[in-house]
């Protein structure tokens, strides 16, 4: 058995880093992960989130949903400015509609991955040889078109054989 070359996933101790280069790389990766989690929270729950992070180099990074300014204005109690409030982005698309599209696409992706797993399992078990025996109601469009083409080819072969024997 070959020896494992990588260290794999290991818990990183939470202590201040000493090397400046490592500090910047770690900050960048963790910042991106934090922003992704904040975006997921907004998408899944409809929460309004504002996140402000200062880098070790004293640069400010912000994330806001629907916008950073509108969430801060709401928190402080100021009336939000019409340019940044109202649930639309700079192209005029409704944020809720876009979030719903993301959720629908994730659902479709999950269903496609499940279908891929099932088909992979069928191939492993050798059931791919008898795919035509599957109930027609459970076939998707691609499988139905494949079955139609196979049946048309079979019909042509049968007609050719009949004319040859007659």
From TrEMBL:
Q: Name one GO molecular function term.
A: protein dimerization activity
Which InterPro entries does UniProt cross-reference here? TF_MADSbox, TF_MADSbox_sf
- Gene3D superfamilies recorded for this chain? 6.10.140.920, Transcription factor, MADS-box
Q: What keywords were assigned to this record? A: DNA-binding, Nucleus, Transcription, Transcription regulation
SMART domains, per the entry: MADS
Query: Which superkingdom, per the lineage?
Result: Eukaryota
Q: Which residues form the MADS-box domain?
A: 7-67
GO CC list: nucleus
Localization, per the record, is:
Nucleus
PANTHER family for this protein:
AGAMOUS-LIKE 50-RELATED (PTHR11945:SF776), MADS BOX PROTEIN (PTHR11945)
Q: What is this protein identified as?
A: Agamous-like MADS-box protein AGL62
Q: Which organism is it from?
A: Coffea arabica
